[in-house]
Amino acid sequence: MKFKEVIKVSRPRFWLYEAATFGLVGTVGALQGLSFFSDWRYWVFALYFLIPANILIYGINDIFDYETDKLNPKKGDDAYEALVPPERQKSLWKWILFTNIPFFFFIPHSIELVLSFFAFVFFASFYSAKPIRAKAKPVIDSLFSAGHYVATGVFGYYLAGGVDFPTIGVIAGMLWAVAMHAYSAVPDIKADLGAGLHTIAIMIGEKRTIALCWFFYALADYLVRDIIPVASVIGVIAFSYFMWRSTKAQTPEALFKLYTYFPLINTIIGALVSMELFAKNIW
User: Which CATH number fits the domain that encloses residue 33?
Assistant: First the structure.
């Protein structure tokens, strides 16, 4: 595979999810001031979670999802997402190893950092990979998907000097990421059914999945209301509207169109979270 093909596999529109969770939520959320910006390790792992981590997540996903992806109209060389046929998978594996393994040697010798980093690798890999292949197991799929985002934030938190385990942040982050994952499964119901997969969206249906996502978003915002009050209020309003619009979608195409706005909405809310945390660090 060529590098530009690997970049497409890595879903550039999602790059900020891991990078921002690490660099603008986890590290800033440690509330240890902003001195970590001068630590070279911060910039090494900011780069890692921006690109190589996404090559790992989505590369493994596309390798193990080929049977599903070939039935999905949004997959293909000229489509919304890449399709990785068997003859290109060995090359993609090499890219995954080549871009990820070097960063393992930069992990500081700290039990919290080692455990959180390898928790990220574990959840990100076995969400799609066998023998666990969590994405084919309803509920477990959402937990694994959320797990790698939260592990990224915890890694950033401890790298920046965080001390006490961020319990509220972890619970709220899990709720948010579970909702994000569950919603992403709704537009894929038809393709997943055709491939024999069982996701939470298939198990409880489109409308119930959307309602469950709204509840998780609202609960996450409620839990962090004292930490990031502005972002929590705007977040619950924005996602309530977004979920309501989703229930009104008349066709799979209309629902998919709403889904394409998801990265932008998450980026805006994430930026608000980061700005409030920055303010706490400065003042």
Answer: 1.10.600
